[in-house]
Amino acid sequence: MHINNDDTTNEDQRLRSEYRAYLVIFIWFILAFVIVGRAFFIQVIKHTYYIGQADKQYVSSTPINFDRGSILFSHYNGEVVPAAQLNTMYRIAIDPTQIKDVEDLYAKLSAVIPLDKTTFIEKATKKNDPYEEIAKDITSDTVSILKTKNLIGVSFVKDNKRAYPQETVGSKVIGFVGNDGTRVRGQYGLERYYDDVLSRTSSDQTINFFAELFTDIEKTMVSNSDKEEGDIVLTIDSEAERALHNALLDTKEKWNSDTIGGIVMDPQTGAIIAMDGLPSFDPNQYAKEKDPSVFMNQNISGVYEMGSIIKPLTMAAAIDSGAINEATTTYNDTGFRMLNGYKVSNYDGKPRGLHTSMQTILDKSLNVGIVFIVEQLGAKRFQDYFKKYGLGQETGIDLPGEAGGLTKNLDSKVFVDSATAGFGQGIAVTPIQTIRALASLGNGGKLVTPHVVDSIIYQDGTTKKIVQDSGEQVISADTSERISRMLVHVVDTALMNGADKMEHYTVAAKTGTAQMVKPGGGYYDDRYLHSFFGYFPAYDPKYIIFLFQTYPKGAEYASATLTDPFYKMVKFLISYYEVPPDR
User: Fold this and answer.
1) Are 579 and 283 in contact (CB under 8 A)?
2) Which of 377, 388, 346, 341 is CA-nearest to residue 363?
3) Which of 321, 556, 298 is nearest to 429 (CA)?
4) Are residues 241 and 249 in contact, defined by beta-carbon separation less than 8 angstroms?
5) Whether 177 contacts 185, CB under 8 Å
6) Hey, which residues does 328 pair with through a beta bridge?
7) Vertex 504, ends 503 and 507: CA angle to 5°?
8) Count of CA atoms in the C-beta half-sphere (13 A) of 191
9) Which of 9, 190, 215, 562 is positioned for an S-S bond with 532, CB 3.0–4.6 A?
10) Which has the minimum average pLDDT: 57-66, 99-108, 167-176, 475-484?
11) Other C-beta atoms within 10 Å of 24: how many?
């Protein structure tokens, strides 16, 4: 009988294939049984326990070690000085499952760090909990002492903290880092404006892998993984900033003003060398502040009627347009003018008579003279110049919260609105707008962009230099020189009767005193805003200084309250930057 070997072989192969298939099915059945059983154990029998663990681990209460870029003041010698940086502190935790003698451990720990015994024992006796924090903000020196004791069940976790070593100096520019209810991020100042550069991906909260895998939590978290991260280096010099801060402190204390602020800027580039304001705050302890308005930088967010420091802008516009000639034009100063039923007077109400010169208008700060100049310009041309100066417009400074201003009178068809705007009344602008416009008087007529960041050092080692454009030409270079000459004359002969004339340096400057506006309209009779600006060396200025304060007590005019701090800053800058004399 013939046996077909091929049929036998095929049958054996079929049986082996069926056997392997049944084996695989059996193994999968066993695995499924185990998984279902485990799921039943977790979801039903241990439901309460794992719900508690999930609450702790879904979004971990222990963040990844906080990381953030530094903010660095510049320094004349080329170094950088930290304005905002990370300090390493520690959190101390215990593992109750490893603790054998709670009382003994408490005694050893409390000998080094302050601990509440009741709270400690409560945490240390949670036998099913492997992690309980007992202390935070502990220094590395203290941790080193504790580590020598070889304490079982005690762990130390690095906890970086944001620190501001300059404390109140420059805090309104720097801002601070805080929790906005969603995540830790920059609040106010540079911390806010450059948050995308300073923040680090690792500073987000830890997300449990499986929670992220099976939910849409990723969509609710802010990610900065696609951005460039780095440190920022400021144009602000640490020594100049401290000098300005101290000058403001002394002035505010002497005159008991409500607020005070100051800016030092390079008028050629718009680089801010110093900026500060009072009242101030310590960003290391920002939570202690009860009034959030103290965080506002009044140099960029405050809006004020500036008064007579606006007069040089009006004079320059008239010179630039050809409406007047500062050397030959005169007018009859009658002490006051009636405009549409509104009386405009000189500060003392006195007339200066026939043939009053343009220089006298600035020397004596004559409102009636400014009315004459605006008449020669014409309201429309005057308004166009003031808009070219950028008054009422944001400057583009790299800080948050910049205000625009209240300058609707620059669109008014009523002449008195232009006339009063010409001496700084009826229009309200920010200090940063003011110093920007005034800088054009000395820098050849350009409207520069104020800025506080010099460069960004990225984490890959590359550096990006922040370069601003040269600025729009708003008056001619010739007009700039002519108005500067007039302002030098103000300092040399009129300001404090020439007492502050500097023998070897030309300084172009002007003071301003303006009645403060009442909340409901009108002006206070006894409350003033004092302002003072000046630049030097006058014909090729390296520095422009602007100071202001609201409601100083005991002196009516800015020349009495701000001349001293202005010249303190001038002398500091000359000495610190070794400015050569120009006369």
Assistant:
1) no
2) 346
3) 298
4) no
5) yes
6) none
7) 85
8) 25
9) 562
10) 57-66
11) 10
CA distances (Å), 281 to each of 166, 174, 267, 277, 370, in order?
11, 11, 29, 10, 40
Q: At residue 2, what is the residue type? A: H
Mean pLDDT score, 233-259: 97
Rounded to whole angstroms, the Cα distance separating 362 from 510 reads 8
Give CA–CA dist 510/491, Å, rounded: 8
- Cross-strand bridge partners of residue 62: none
Give the whole-angstrom CA distance, residue 450 versus residue 448.
Answer: 6
State the residue for tokens 């000189």: 346
pTM over 0.85: no
CA angle 224, 229, 233 (to 5 degrees): 140
Q: 467: pLDDT confidence band, cut at 50, 70 and 90?
A: confident
CA distances from 531 to 300, 304, 500 (A): 15, 10, 17
Q: Looking at the DSSP assignment, which residues form a beta bridge with residue 92?
A: 135, 156
87 close to 161: Cβ distance less than 8 angstroms: yes
Token pair for 169: 């100096």
Cβ atoms of residues 402 and 395 within 8 Å: yes
The DSSP result for 84-149, as a single string, is EEEEEEEEEEE-GGG-S-HHHHHHHHHTTS---HHHHHHHHT-TT-S-EEEEEEE-HHHHHHHHTT
Q: What is the greatest pairwise CA distance in the chain?
A: 148
Please tell me the distance from the alpha carbon of residue 199 to that of residue 177, in angstroms, as a whole number. 10
Q: How far is CA 467 from CA 446, 449, 545, in A?
A: 16, 10, 22
Asked if residues 62 and 208 have their Cβ atoms less than 8 Å apart, the reply is no
Contacts of 437 (CB under 8 A, 6+ apart): 313, 389, 390, 391, 447
Are 389 and 437 a contacting pair, CB within 8 Å? Answer: yes
